[in-house]
């Protein structure tokens, strides 16, 4: 067979496509379920196990091996190609998402596991066994590397999950058609025609789905969000969706509610103003970490003494959302247009570590909840030590800390982590109807009393002296549950484990 070298290219493509499908499944599940650590590990584990099952099953294929190899390639193409759209639609419209998720992962893994042994059997008469095994396994791992690099750096940021899935399904089908020419001597002519027709039909189906990818995404999101979607776009970091309903606009990141315009003022007044009330002096330099919607900045700009606000948020699509969505610009009162505001699009962890800055008077830390390791690192002792180094000795900081009612261990893990870093901590909580009871931490580097007074005439809708005092009073069911709550460090990410186990109860 004269095309032996070309068949090795199939190995790379098979490995690349297979891993891409599993990364897609893990990413989709983390988007819709939020439980990224568990989902990624179990999905990859099930996929590898299924490949082993496929390899074992290959022993039972004894006839028409080349033909069966192409049939399997086309099966992987159609099942893997539609996997991401099917998972999104399944989550939106049926109640047994987990069953379909792991069934798809297992089926794709089994089919990919079948392909490599069959290809090795096709090639065994043309190469020395030692050379055959070394080449196939080496190229298999090369394909895995290509998938691991392309997926986060190019495919998801540029194409999105649905288009990536469909594109690689079409690639699988094209490889299957190509293989009919490479393996032509081993397949009867009549079967060759049938296989090629099947391959082109698969490409046609996936091509139509590719054209309709936006419609598929909209259909899935219409099922996920009860209100009308007025903005939806994917960045390299997250899926941003804004809806409009009877209570106003809501922002969702990866399916998780960030605010509703009806009651967001409660959350953001509680986030910002206790820090100003606790600061002994005239606050001029303010740091905001996260908060790319500009709503915390809106509250900060109510203080005439503020000379500069530096906002650090990873996602430029998020900090530019006000430009694309007039409703958000109105809600944050065009905060980013104020000349005192400087926006830095960077990873806050890296930015704090790499920049020498004039110290800040006040810092507001408004990151998303720690539902994965990338976010969990922003709640570690290492991160808080980096933050300390950028503050004046008498600076005041407020940090959002998830709910002390729904995620009690998570909340107090953050408090203990702050204390382990050397901060003096005053935990507090506020009621935000969209979220329920929400938790914060007011911290300083020097001993201080709980603030009692708020600046007059700055236009507060929620906070007054009575509510300010009440926020620092915790009922019994929200106090620290035990003394053995773990401190969150880079090398243990205890907070992510707490968070996943606690919020999973409400799925």
Structure notes:
The chain is of the alpha/beta class. It folds into 2 domains: 4-207, Up-down Bundle (Growth Hormone, Chain: A); 263-506, 3-Layer(aba) Sandwich (Rossmann fold). Helices cover 55% and strands 15% of the residues. It is built from 19 helices and 11 strands. It has a 7-stranded mixed β-sheet with strand order 7-6-5-8-9-11-10, with helices on both faces. A 4-stranded antiparallel β-sheet has the order 1-2-3-4. A hairpin with a 2-residue loop joins strand 3 and strand 4. Helix 1 runs parallel beside helix 3 (65-81) and helix 2 (36-57) runs parallel beside helix 5. The longest helix has 54 residues, at 129-182. It is elongated. The protein starts with a helix and ends with a helix. The mean pLDDT is 88.
Number of DSSP-assigned strands:
11
Helix content: 55-70%
Order of helices and strands: HHHHHHHHEEEEHEHEHHHEHEHHEHEEHH
CATH classification, class level of the largest domain: Alpha Beta
User: Total number of helical segments?
Assistant: 19
The overall pLDDT average reads 88
How many domain modules? Answer: 2
């Amino acid at each position: 067979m004269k095309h032996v070298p070309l068949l090795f290219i199939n190995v790379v493509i098979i490995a690349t496509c297979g891993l891409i499908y599993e990364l897609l499944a893990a990413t989709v599940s983390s988007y819709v379920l939020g439980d990224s650590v568990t989902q990624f590990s179990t999905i990859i584990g099930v996929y590898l196990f299924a490949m082993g099952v496929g390899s074992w099953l290959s022993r039972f294929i004894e006839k028409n091996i080349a033909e069966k190899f192409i049939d399997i390639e086309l099966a992987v193409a159609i099942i893997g190609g539609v996997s991401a759209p099917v998972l999104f639609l399944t989550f939106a419209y049926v109640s047994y998402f987990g069953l379909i998720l792991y069934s798809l992962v297992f089926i794709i893994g089994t089919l990919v596991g079948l392909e490599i042994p069959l290809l090795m059997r096709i090639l065994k008469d043309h190469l020395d066994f030692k050379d055959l095994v070394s080449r196939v396994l080496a190229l298999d791992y090369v394909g895995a590397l290509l998938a691991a690099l392309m997926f986060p750096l190019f495919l998801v940021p540029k194409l999105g999950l649905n288009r990536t899935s469909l594109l690689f399904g079409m690639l699988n089908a094209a490889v299957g058609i190509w293989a009919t020419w490479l393996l032509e001597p081993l397949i009867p002519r009549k079967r060759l025609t049938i296989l090629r027709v099947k391959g082109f039909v698969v490409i046609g189906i996936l091509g139509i789905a590719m054209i309709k990818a936006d419609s598929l995404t909209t259909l899935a999101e219409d099922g996920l969000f009860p209100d009308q979607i007025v903005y939806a776009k994917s960045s390299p970091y997250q899926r941003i969706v804004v809806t409009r309903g009877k209570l106003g606009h809501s922002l969702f990141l990866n399916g998780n509610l960030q605010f509703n315009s009806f009651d967001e003022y409660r959350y953001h007044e509680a986030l910002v103003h206790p820090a100003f009330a606790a600061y002994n002096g005239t606050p001029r330099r303010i740091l905001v970490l996260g908060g790319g919607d500009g709503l915390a900045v809106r509250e900060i700009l109510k203080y005439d003494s503020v000379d500069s606000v530096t906002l650090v948020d990873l996602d430029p699509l998020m900090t530019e959302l006000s430009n694309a969505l007039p409703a958000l610009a109105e809600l944050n009162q065009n905060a980013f247009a104020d000349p005192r505001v400087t926006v830095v699009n960077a990873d806050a962890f890296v930015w704090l570590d790499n920049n020498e800055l004039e110290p800040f008077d006040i810092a507001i830390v408004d990151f998303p909840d720690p539902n994965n390791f990338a976010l969990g690192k922003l709640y570690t002792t290492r991160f808080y030590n980096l933050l300390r180094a950028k503050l004046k000795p008498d600076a005041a900081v407020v940090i959002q800390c998830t709910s002390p009612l729904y995620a009690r261990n998570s909340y107090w893990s953050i408090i203990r982590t702050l204390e382990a870093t050397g901060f003096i901590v005053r935990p507090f909580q506020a009621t935000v109807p969209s979220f329920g009871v929400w938790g914060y931490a007011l911290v300083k580097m020097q001993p201080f009393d709980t603030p009692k007074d708020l600046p007059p005439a700055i236009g507060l809708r929620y906070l007054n002296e009575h509510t300010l005092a009440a926020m620092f009073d915790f009922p019994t069911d929200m106090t620290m549950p035990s003394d053995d709550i773990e401190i969150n460090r880079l090398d243990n990410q205890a907070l992510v484990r707490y968070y996943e186990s606690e919020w999973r109860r409400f799925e």
